[in-house]
Q: What sequence folds into this?
């Protein structure tokens, strides 16, 4: 059971293998805390043209360094020409607003929102960051943080993509974004750690959360989106034991959308990613889509107006 407590919110690539060689470690002091992040800047980036900025947050007990290669967004940034940032959480965790003392960053009340805003400010002085194209994605604990960032700094983020993540009840109870934000969610119905229907987390002392369908309703209502239309995606890998139902809620304010990838039979995993822990621990990996590609395509379509 001890290693199960570590496994829960790794959510991707605990191993360092494949980490991008071009990502560089940087530090920044926020308040009185020195924070670390990994920065991947494609060679094609110059100050002549404004570029998008993407944050990719690791899961609990994961690391930013591992995410540089393991998430797929490092290589994708070279291809697509955006700057990718892979921050490190305090105690390998994020203060996503659940208020759980068993999670180090939450016990210490670390201001991760301030950390992210400080990185944006620092990088905007160094590079020509397009303020209309700032995005965030992450898995598990990192995905929870995406919801918090978009709820509390909606004027900054154009779109977010939480994967295998929920929303803490404290964030949901004060949910009042100032501006609409496009959201794409990817959640497995058989996630043993972050229950699709909400309630207590699948690991002790990780809190109670709002269900995925309720999260979708919150964003659809705040964005002013239209009624959703669902479709089942092609079964690209019949052996993976999963199917994906995609529901698109279009027509939101400022061109926003909410899109849910409901992974029927999927676990606590990146769609298209690796089986980073045994299926009995994290559930199945769906191979019907490649999540970094899908997420980036969604981001490209949804800048700030």
A:
């Amino acid at each position: 059971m001890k290693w199960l407590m570590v496994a829960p919110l790794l959510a991707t690539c605990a191993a360092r293998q494949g980490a991008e060689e071009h990502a560089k470690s940087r530090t920044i002091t926020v308040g009185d805390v020195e924070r670390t992040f990994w920065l991947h800047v494609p060679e094609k980036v110059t100050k002549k043209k404004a570029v998008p900025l993407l944050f990719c947050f690791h899961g609990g007990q994961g690391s930013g360094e591992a995410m540089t290669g393991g998430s797929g967004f490092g290589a994708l940034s070279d291809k697509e020409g955006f700057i990718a940032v892979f921050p490190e959480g305090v105690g390998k965790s994020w203060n996503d607003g659940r208020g759980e003392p068993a999670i180090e960053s939450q016990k210490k009340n670390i201001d991760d929102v301030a950390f992210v805003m400080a990185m944006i400010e620092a990088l905007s002085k160094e590079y020509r960051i397009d303020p209309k194209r700032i995005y965030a994605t992450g898995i598990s604990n990192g995905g929870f943080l995406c919801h918090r960032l978009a709820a509390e700094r909606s004027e900054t983020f154009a779109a977010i993509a939480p994967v295998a993540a929920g929303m803490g009840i404290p964030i949901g109870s004060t949910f009042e974004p100032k501006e609409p934000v496009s959201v794409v969610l990817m959640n497995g119905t058989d996630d043993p750690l972050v229950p699709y229907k909400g309630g207590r987390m699948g690991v002790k002392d990780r809190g109670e959360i709002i269900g995925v369908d309720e999260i979708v309703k919150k964003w659809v209502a705040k964005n002013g989106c239209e009624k959703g239309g669902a479709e089942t995606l092609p079964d690209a890998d019949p052996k993976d034991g999963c199917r994906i139902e995609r529901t698109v809620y279009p027509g939101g304010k400022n061109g926003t959308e909410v899109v849910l990838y409901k992974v029927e039979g999927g676990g606590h995993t990146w769609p298209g990613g690796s089986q980073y822990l045994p299926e009995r621990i994290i559930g199945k990996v769906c191979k019907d889509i490649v999540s970094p590609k899908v997420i980036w395509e969604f981001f490209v379509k949804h800048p700030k107006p």
